């Protein structure tokens, strides 16, 4: 009985170590391949299009919704203490430091991370990745690198878009509904913020972009088992990358706020 | 020295032994056809030659280079001299036919777009697919996809062509078309080929030698005329296409016995 439990724990630890090792090796190979020739500019631009431009509506809508809901909650909460003026300050702080990078990261892990896993998973089960190998092309260089570069650049840019949209989401509620002065809101929103906060948000988004691309590509590349495997890859990618985004958010916040 | 040398190659997936001590030599310009039932390790053999799988023991050498011992860069250099045609073509479905055939040229040759265009047209003409360059793989039939796959494989002018069941799932007429295309490619390009097929008609047309894999072992590798008269019961059963005999480990009962049991 005790041995069986030890067996199971040992097997789980070995499997976990094996999985993490596999991810680490592929991630290392991806970073090493960034500077290898040939540079496929067309492929990279296609990724910017699908990762970045096509994600703008999703990021705008979710940022607007979250910032508006947050403003409603803040207005209600601060009204209890007759401190409505603080709502815009806290709105600015929350959007810049947490909501914009995390919401953007989570939305993009659902939109682009899952798409990467599904695309590479389909390529894997239909032997297209083997075909790349046979055409003397490293799949990590051809498939992973453009997705990683696009994701690392685009997620920070979309986070900046999210901050901007978040400002107007708060404006709609606090100025439009709660009747605060637009001039005061404009000033108060940035009152507690420093340039460092924007820098922190961009650093976080950069790391989230890395997580989304690497996990999405890794899950797709390791797809097995035909249609069922292709179906599982995006789900697994979204769950894993969302989890890592939230966990890394905690550590990045602790680290960057010191 | 043989161009492709398979020495004591063994490969297992978990407890299932797929290849066991397989030895094969393919000389330059020769055309080898590998026959065998489903799951006897034919595709695994090709994947070991391409370096897509690593042998458990033994090795595959191409032009004297042991594939499993090469670095990634060296392996890619060897792969540029081998064209692989996949069972289901494995065309890049996000690309057009032109982009598929041009893929290797764009990656590995310093050629202008005009030169690439000319080479793509030449390859598509060779496989009878001229004029399809703007189509996507989804718009092609099974036989057309295979032929585009052939065109992609020959684009870099390889010394070796590997065909993995190129006629599986095609109608008899298209099977004959594919057989002819392989024969034409072999004669026009003078390449060394290894073809895995179940189609005996095209096998005897294409082959300089025929090998038969049975339960992971190569039980024969000889000229088609010798193969035809080889008395080995497995070979004769395979040639007859008969369910009764030693070929299947668990053969279905004869039809008449089922009828007798029900009457």
Write the layout of secondary structure elements.
The complex is a heterodimer of chains A (258) and B (263).
Chain A: H1 2-33, H2 41-52, H3 56-79, H4 85-125, H5 128-134, H6 139-177, H7 182-189, H8 195-221, H9 226-256
Chain B: E1 4-13, E2 16-26, E3 31-36, H1 42-50, E4 57-62, E5 65-66, H2 72-79, E6 82-85, H3 97-108, H4 113-126, H5 142-154, E7 160-164, H6 172-189, E8 192-196, H7 200-206, E9 209-214, E10 217-222, H8 224-228, H9 233-240, H10 255-262
Parallel strand pairs in B: 3-8, 3-9, 6-7, 7-8
Antiparallel strand pairs in B: 1-2, 1-4, 4-5, 9-10
Helix pairs in contact in B: 3-4, 3-5, 4-5, 6-7
Short description:
The complex is a heterodimer of chains A (258) and B (263). With 258 residues, chain A is an all-alpha fold.
Describe the structure.
The complex is a heterodimer of chains A (258) and B (263). Chain A has 258 residues and is mainly alpha-helical. Chain A has one domain. Chain A is built from 9 helices and no strands. Chain A has helices at 2-33, 41-52, 56-79, 85-125, 128-134, 139-177, 182-189, 195-221, 226-256. The relative contact order of chain A is 0.16. Chain B is globular, with a radius of gyration of 20 Å. Chain B has a domain at 93-156. With 263 residues, chain B is of the alpha/beta class. In chain B, a hairpin with a 2-residue loop joins strand 4 and strand 5. In chain B, the strands form 2 sheets. Chain B has a 6-stranded mixed sheet with strand order 6-7-8-3-9-10, sandwiched between helices. Chain B has a 4-stranded antiparallel sheet with strand order 2-1-4-5, with helices on one face. Chain B starts with a strand and ends with a helix. Helix content of chain B is 39%, strand content 23%.
């Amino acid at each position: 009985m005790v041995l069986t439990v030890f067996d199971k724990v040992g097997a789980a630890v070995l499997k976990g170590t094996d999985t993490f090792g596999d991810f680490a090796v592929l991630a290392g190979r991806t970073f090493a391949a960034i500077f290898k020739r040939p540079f496929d500019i067309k492929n990279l631009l296609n990724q910017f299009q699908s990762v970045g431009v096509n994600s703008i509506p999703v990021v705008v809508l979710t940022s607007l919704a979250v910032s508006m809901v947050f403003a409603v909650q803040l207005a209600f909460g601060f009204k209890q203490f007759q401190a409505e003026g603080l709502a815009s300050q806290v709105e600015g702080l929350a959007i810049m430091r947490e909501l914009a990078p995390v919401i953007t990261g989570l939305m993009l892990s659902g939109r682009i991370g899952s798409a990467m896993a599904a695309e590479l998973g389909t390529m894997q089960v239909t032997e297209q990745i083997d075909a790349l190998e046979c055409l003397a092309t490293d799949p990590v260089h051809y498939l992973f690198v453009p997705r990683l570069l696009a994701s690392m650049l685009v997620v920070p840019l979309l986070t900046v878009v999210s901050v901007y949209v978040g400002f107007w989401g708060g404006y709609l509620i606090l100025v439009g509904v709660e009747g605060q002065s637009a001039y005061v809101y404009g000033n108060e929103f940035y009152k507690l913020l420093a340039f460092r906060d924007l820098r922190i948000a961009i650093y976080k988004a950069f790391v989230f972009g890395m997580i989304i691309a690497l996990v999405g590509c890794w899950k797709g590349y390791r797809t097995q088992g035909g249609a069922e495997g292709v179906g599982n890859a995006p789900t697994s990618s979204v769950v894993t990358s969302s989890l890592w985004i939230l966990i890394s958010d905690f550590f990045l916040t602790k680290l960057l706020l010191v | 020295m043989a161009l492709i040398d398979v020495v004591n190659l063994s490969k297992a997936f978990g407890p299932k032994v797929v290849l066991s001590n397989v030895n094969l030599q393919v000389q330059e310009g020769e055309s080898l056809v590998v026959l065998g039932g489903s799951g006897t390790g034919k595709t695994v053999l090709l994947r070991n030659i391409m370096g897509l799988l690593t042998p458990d023991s033994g090795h595959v050498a191409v032009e004297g280079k042991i594939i499993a011992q090469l670095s990634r860069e060296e392996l890619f250099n060897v792969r540029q001299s081998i064209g692989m045609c996949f069972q289901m073509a494995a065309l890049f479905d996000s690309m057009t036919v032109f982009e598929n055939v041009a893929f290797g040229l764009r990656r590995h040759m310093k050629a202008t777009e005009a030169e690439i265009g000319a080479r793509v047209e030449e390859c598509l003409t060779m496989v009878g697919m001229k004029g399809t360059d703007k189509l996507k793989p989804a718009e092609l039939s099974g036989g057309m996809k295979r032929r585009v796959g052939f065109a992609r494989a020959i684009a870099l002018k390889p010394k070796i062509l590997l065909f993995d069941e190129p006629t599986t799932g095609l109608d008899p007429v298209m099977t004959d078309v594919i057989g002819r295309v392989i024969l034409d490619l072999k004669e026009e390009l003078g390449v060394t080929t290894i073809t895995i097929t179940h189609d005996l008609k095209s096998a005897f047309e294409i082959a300089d030698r025929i090998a038969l894999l049975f339960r992971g072992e190569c039980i024969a590798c000889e000229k088609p005329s010798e193969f035809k008269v080889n008395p080995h019961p497995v070979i004769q059963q395979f040639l007859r296409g008969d369910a009764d005999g030693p070929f299947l480990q668990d053969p279905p009962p004869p039809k008449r016995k089922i009828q007798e049991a029900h009457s």
